[in-house]
């Protein structure tokens, strides 16, 4: 009596599963390298919290050297992802990619005190940002980009505290103005009720933290009153 089950069917499935496991293992190995480079950049940029402002440009220059390594890691990842299967494997690298976007955003802010542009972010990583939600090859997703921007707000609220400690009393004022403008920009987006939305809601607490610093500096007459008028025009954001 002939078999009613074609065992070759299961052999094919097993081969497919092994092939997918190999792809994931290779991606995870590359992601570990990306994580390592992120930590190197973080270690450099973290020194801005304890360094004189005159040293910040040099720290940014040092950090930028590592971004060429990130380009290599991303290129390796792009070569591992099967065609049209970006979202199938995206979860393996999304978190470190968000961190890389944050580091590029922070580096740009420290150099220019403005928000990074899409073109500048693409320059950091030598890969396109997906703006039309139609990824067919390796891209930086818009969610990864926005998560990086949200992470910037928390880092800048921390920098505002440490700037006061080092005697740079004008920096919190500039940071506060920037965060309020950034918050206004995020309010233009129709974000879904997911992780990104929840993190966006946290921006107002970073703003409130900076506003409290500015208020204390004002009371102590450590900043020029007319400079911070712009930043104190609308305190309702942090209280919303």
UniProtKB/TrEMBL annotation:
Biological process annotations from GO: RNA metabolic process
Upper lineage: Eukaryota, Fungi, Fungi incertae sedis, Mucoromycota, Mortierellomycotina
Subunit annotation: Ring-shaped heterooctamer of six TSN and two TSNAX subunits, DNA/RNA binding occurs inside the ring.
Record carries keyword Cytoplasm: yes
Entry's family note: Belongs to the translin family.
Keywords, comma-separated and alphabetical: Cytoplasm, DNA-binding, Endonuclease, Hydrolase, Nuclease, Nucleus, RNA-binding
Keyword Cytoplasm appears in the UniProt entry: yes
GO molecular function: endonuclease activity; hydrolase activity; RNA binding; sequence-specific DNA binding; single-stranded DNA binding
Annotated localization: Cytoplasm; Nucleus
Domain of life: Eukaryota
InterPro entries named among the record's database cross-references: Translin, Translin_C, Translin_fam, Translin_N, Translin_sf
Function: DNA-binding protein that specifically recognizes consensus sequences at the breakpoint junctions in chromosomal translocations, mostly involving immunoglobulin (Ig)/T-cell receptor gene segments. Seems to recognize single-stranded DNA ends generated by staggered breaks occurring at recombination hot spots.
Cellular component per GO, a single term: nucleus
Protein name: Translin
